[in-house]
Design a protein that fits this description.
416 residues; alpha+beta; Aminopeptidase; four-stranded antiparallel β-sheet; four-stranded mixed β-sheet; 54% helix
Length: 416
């Protein structure tokens, strides 16, 4: 059990450490030798450092940590602690590591400084931390202003910041700073979400059943089957249609070649795709955050469920934000018994997760309400769940939604 929980934390620590080194390289190796700044709270710290003479390594924790403290309830204890350590680590790396001053070229400084900063922030987020308090501040403001979304607040924040920079640092420095910010933002998106360029693939083969099974199992992608007829033969033919990202095209090609080298395959570039299993990447990441020890099993289990196997879990509920991105999920099953329950058919909350930035906004409660409705519709009179001992945040969330603690167990095992 100790190693089961230690290994995911070691991986998170490694990602945060790499993020600190990358962001430190962007700041000290590129931007600090120029008059350029980045966006967000980091940009404020850099602007203050240039105008007051106070060291950036001192300003980063001073300006960022209050946002972490105020947003503690939004993020949860573990995320807040990792973020504090991440920001402190970034400040220490700038103060102690002798990063080289890479280039005097202003364009290269702006582009690659932004690249290293964006990569660093993205790696830290993948490790469960933030190196910049901008999104926390935006989340708190948007929660109190119903007409403003988080993205609107961040955009307005940076517009004001760069206007101030223009008056203090000059027009050229401000414009290069905007270039730095754009490079950082695009790199951050790439690190977090990859390349979301979609391609539709149509496959015509006599072995479509085997190809469909491989695509759903190996890639976790949904496949649509529709009927067609041969133009010359007039014979009825199943046609497969699926949508994948650009990085998955080669995998689909390899599957088709392996199953039926003579299959007819057509690729259709798409300008966009929404909904369906094509957007299960966020669901996959949330599942991985909840059950990090089962990394290799998530794609197969997701593909099995969306392929029609509703045995385990019996139902999946996914909560999305206004832009359609998944921010929480619940997985449900029917158990013949659960600790502290009296009936022989119990709806069980096998997994319940909400991304830290979406917590305290009713997402978890909405998922549990939907789980209760599903349980009643499935003929159950009780809904059960569990949490690991020591996971105080999960225990508090369960109790706040009306769950009663039935037992506290410590389980044991040994090799035979």
């Amino acid at each position: 059990m100790f190693m089961h929980r230690l290994l995911p934390e070691l991986l998170n620590a490694a990602l945060i450490a790499l993020g600190i080194l990358s962001a430190g390289m962007g700041l000290k190796g590129f931007l600090l030798s120029s008059n350029f700044i980045d966006g967000g709270v980091t940009g404020i710290c850099m602007l203050l450092a240039k105008t007051t003479g106070v060291s950036l390594s001192v300003l980063l924790p001073l300006v960022n940590l209050p946002f972490i403290a105020v947003g503690y309830r939004q993020m949860g204890r573990a995320f807040a602690v990792r973020s504090v350590l991440g920001i402190a680590g970034l400040a220490a790396s700038i103060a102690l590591i002798p990063y080289p001053d890479v280039t005097p070229d202003l364009v290269l400084t702006a582009v690659f400084g932004g690249f290293f900063i964006g990569a660093g922030i993205g790696l830290a987020v993948r490790g469960g931390a933030v190196l910049d308090g901008t999104e926390i501040a935006a989340l708190l403001i948007s929660k109190r202003a119903d007409l403003l979304r988080v993205g609107d607040v961040i955009l307005g924040f940076n517009v004001v910041l760069f206007l101030v920079a223009m008056s203090l640092l000059g027009v050229d420095a401000a414009l290069y700073s905007i270039l730095t910010y754009l490079a950082a933002a695009k790199t951050l998106d790439f690190v977090l979400y990859g390349i979301d360029e979609y391609t539709a693939i149509t496959v015509i083969s006599d072995l479509n059943a085997a190809i469909r099974e491989r695509v759903t199992r190996d890639l976790g992608r949904g496949v649509t089957i529709y009927k067609g007829y041969g133009g010359m033969s007039g014979a009825e033919q199943d046609i497969l249609y699926c949508v994948v990202t650009r990085l998955e095209i080669g995998k689909v090609r390899a599957i088709v070649r392996d199953v039926d080298p003579g299959a007819f395959v057509v690729f259709h570039p798409l300008t966009g795709a929404e909904g369906g299993v094509v957007k299960t990447r966020g669901f996959h990441w949330m599942r991985q955050a909840l059950w990090p020890s089962a990394r290799g099993e998530h794609a197969e289990e997701i593909a099995r469920f969306f392929g029609g196997d509703r045995d385990d879990p019996a139902e999946v509920l996914v909560a999305c934000d206004d832009s359609g991105e998944p921010v929480g999920f619940a997985e449900l099953s029917i158990r013949p018994h659960a600790e502290g329950c009296y009936s022989g058919r119990v709806a069980y909350l096998e997994g319940w997760f909400v991304e830290p930035a979406a917590r305290r906004k009713g997402v978890g409660a909405a998922l549990v309400k939907a789980a209760e409705d599903w349980g009643r519709a499935s003929g159950c009179t009780e809904l059960a769940s569990n949490a690991e001992i020591g996971n105080d945040e999960s225990v508090s969330a369960h109790r706040a939604l009306g769950f009663a603690i039935t037992s506290r167990n410590i389980c044991f095992r040994k090799d035979l």
